[in-house]
Amino acid sequence: MTQFGDFAPLCHTVPSYPWCNLFYRQIVDTNTSLLANASANATIAPVGVNPQCGILRVGADGSVGNIANIVVCAISILFTLLLIYWTSRRRAAVGRVEIRQFFVLYLLTLPFQLVTTGAFLEQGSTALTAVTGVHAGLVAATFWALLANAIVSTQVVEDGTLSSLIPFNFFLLAFFAATTYIALDVGFSFTHVFGPSDPLSSERSVPLFVLTSIWPGAAAIIYFLIMLYVVLGMLNEVRPVWYFVLAMVIFVLSQLDFFLLNKVICKGTSAKVDGSFVATILETAAVGVLYLAWRSITEETWDDDVYYPR
């Protein structure tokens, strides 16, 4: 019976689900009978644990890895660098420092995603497990930065000041450190507090599931609701709302693609590519629309007009 926090169904049905990499090493160390098909051979195993359809590791049977998502991640990195540059130029804009930090964090997740889903490294290897753990921490921190930007937009504290940046960065580091530690504990079995029981009987970790699967969705929804309040209730604007609605719709579509169409695309291409590249395109598009939404409710420069008394 599937329990809350059980990754096994996701690892089985969702190709290139990176958090499943954390369980492979544990399975190899404790119960290899849980591995089947291509996953049984670590030298060619695809991302995850026993996926119904998975892209073999680079070099195995002519595989070039998850090439589509590799290319999309590279393009997304360049696009996000542009967003950071454009944001830095808007020096008088409210929340400039905070939203730039969000873009920087999203930028950092992309090379890690490229590695954890690209089928470069051998399953169960120390390198892949460590990179996946840090990737998990970055994702959790990124969604805190997203939510914190909504809080800053309410002007509860003045943006760009220590009263804003200290709690912003404190919780950012807390989410990163806690999630990374939990992910590494699952992957390397430092303890059995956060990971599966010993001996391993299932790919299950409630804390990891909450921080990597529940928290991002919850943070996105709360961000959306707060921004609707800010735009409609505080600014009395309507047009910017459509940017936030569009960003939310694109984000939801990216998740639907990843969890529902990913396997369909993988099987339809005989495991040459999967749907992760479409999800990455949509996620990056959502981040781009968030920039447009932020831009639409902020000023680009200070009012430098000289006042001449009559």
Automatic annotation (TrEMBL):
Keyword Metal-binding: no
Entry's transmembrane regions: 67-87, 99-121, 127-152, 164-188, 208-232, 241-261, 273-294
Record-level GO cellular component terms: endoplasmic reticulum membrane
Protein origin, superkingdom: Eukaryota
GO biological process per UniProt: protein folding
Single GO MF annotation: unfolded protein binding
UniProt keywords, alphabetically: Membrane, Transmembrane, Transmembrane helix
Keyword Transmembrane among UniProt keywords: yes
Pfam family, one: Chs7
Name of the protein in question: Uncharacterized protein
